[in-house]
Amino acid sequence: MPPTPGSTPPGSTSPVWPARGERSTDGALLGRALAAWSRPGARTHAEPGTDPAPPTAPVHLLFAGTVDGTGVAVFHDGGRIARCTDGRDGQDAGLDLARADDADLTTSGAVVLHRQGATVRYLLAPWVDSAETRRIDQPDTPARPLDHPDGLTAPTPAGGPADCRGATLLELHSSPVVADRHAFLLTDLGGLIPTHLTYAPPPDRTPADHTQADHTQADHTQADLEPREATAQDALRAWARAGCAAPDGTPGVRRLDLWSFAVQPLPQNAGSTSWVCLRADRWDGAGSAATAVVLPGSGRPQRSDGGSGRTCSRFDRDTVSWAWWRSPRGSEFLLAAGSRRVTRLAVKGPNWSADRSTPDRTLAVERPARAAVQVEALLDDGTRISPPPEARPQPVHPRGPVRPGGPVRTRDPVPVQSVANGRRADSPS
User: Fold this and answer.
1) Most exposed: 12, 23, 197, 333, by fewest CB within 10 Å?
2) What pLDDT, on the 0 to 100 scale, is given for residue 313?
3) So what's the pLDDT on residue 176?
4) 135, 160 contact by CB (below 8 A)
5) How far apart, in whole angstroms, are the C-alpha atoms of residue 255 and residue 237?
């Protein structure tokens, strides 16, 4: 099946992606690559959820060239990206496959061409006008220009935000002909297609009141919930603080979204902290989420796994989380926070409880010592939600496990003793 000289890249709305590379007419290289795809073997690697079978649709050539001494050919068959690398010392050609169906301008902005040691080289889409790199842990440092002659970048550090070691991000800017200089961030999670990073800012501090809200306010609220590009300064700082709490840092993640769902003033005038929910959406449709908080004096976020399913997606924006915090004065506080529709927070521990209305969707209760607790939130429609039983806050370690679960919802109220304004709760329940 001969490749065509030019092709439409992943995503029907993307402009034409012509074949590039100095070996795009090398029949021998292309023949070996297509033979490897037509007969998958021991050196075939398909990312999770990707069909390893030979192509059944027309195959289009995106690139063919020599990269760091290795022959590389990249194809697209309408739903998958295939990267074929020449074998060495008599080995068969290597074949890597990844899903790319319904990709858009951002998720088809780059393909990993070659890995060598701790570096990676990308092939950028032809509609990328300029490229830069930036460290995720240095949000206030200007991005550095990245050379990419004919779309092939110089080697850049590999690794994504989930490893907690200061990942290098790609910041790409599209041509004004395509999308008015649209800027977006990509990160390497070890797969064939980099992952798109997005951000949703914290809500305003006004309590939910749907009885008086007009359509304009409702539209504004919905717009606030929609993820946006993570290139603004507030987004970069949020990713720097909490990015390594991402629930999934493996190949096959299409998008990582960081949603800042609450901002909490800390007791004893100790400043404030942000509560975030990070969501990973995979190319195969699966997803997972984790809530996290970065507390003063802590170098890494405390994460509570939110489970799989729709948690923290645009289909389920209701969440609640909690963490213990020791103030600079040595006091222990149970902190809790909920998303926009939360109107009340309740916490129950051994022989004590606290329950109060929360206009700012946060709660702080001082306790003599840490203990196991149950946390629950009341939504504006009467639904009660709570973190999954497995969601115990814990410091993030590189490549931490993801546990199943999700917010627990119920309409049955759990009676707890009320302690007004989050003051010390010492009375028995």
Assistant:
1) 12
2) 86
3) 82
4) no
5) 18
| pLDDT under 50: residue ranges of the chain | 1-15, 205-222, 398-406, 410-429
CB environment 215-253: b (16+ within 10 A), e (fewer)? eeeeeebeeeeebebbbeeebbebbbbbbbbbbbbbbbb
Q: Which two tokens stand for residue 326?
A: 């020791």
Which tens digit of pLDDT belongs to each residue from 116-148?
A: 999 999 999 999 999 999 999 999 999 999 999
Distance between first and last Cα of the chain? 74
CB 258 within 8 A of CB 294: no
Q: CA–CA separation, 215 vs 233, rounded Å?
A: 30
Q: According to the model, what pLDDT value does residue 2 have?
A: 33
Burial of 132 (0-12, 13-18, 19+ CB in 10 A): middle
Q: What is the pLDDT of residues 153-181, one digit of tens each?
A: 999 999 888 767 789 999 999 988 776 77
User: What pLDDT, on a 0 to 100 scale, did the predictor assign at position 389?
Assistant: 61
- The CA distances from residue 334 to 33, 363, 370, in Å, are 58, 8, 8
The mean pLDDT of the chain is 83
CB 58 within 8 A of CB 67: no
- Two structure tokens written together for 339: 């998303």
Query: What value, to the nearest 5°, has the Cα angle with vertex 168 and ends 165 and 173?
Result: 155
Which residue in this structure is represented by tokens 């994504």?
160
The amino acid sitting at 212 is: Q
| pLDDT at res. 10 | 44
Residue 129: exposure state from Cβ atoms within 10 A (0-12, 13-18, ≥19): middle
For 411-422, letters b (16+ CB in 10 Å) and e give eeeeebeebeeb
Q: pTM, whole model, 2 decimals?
A: 0.85
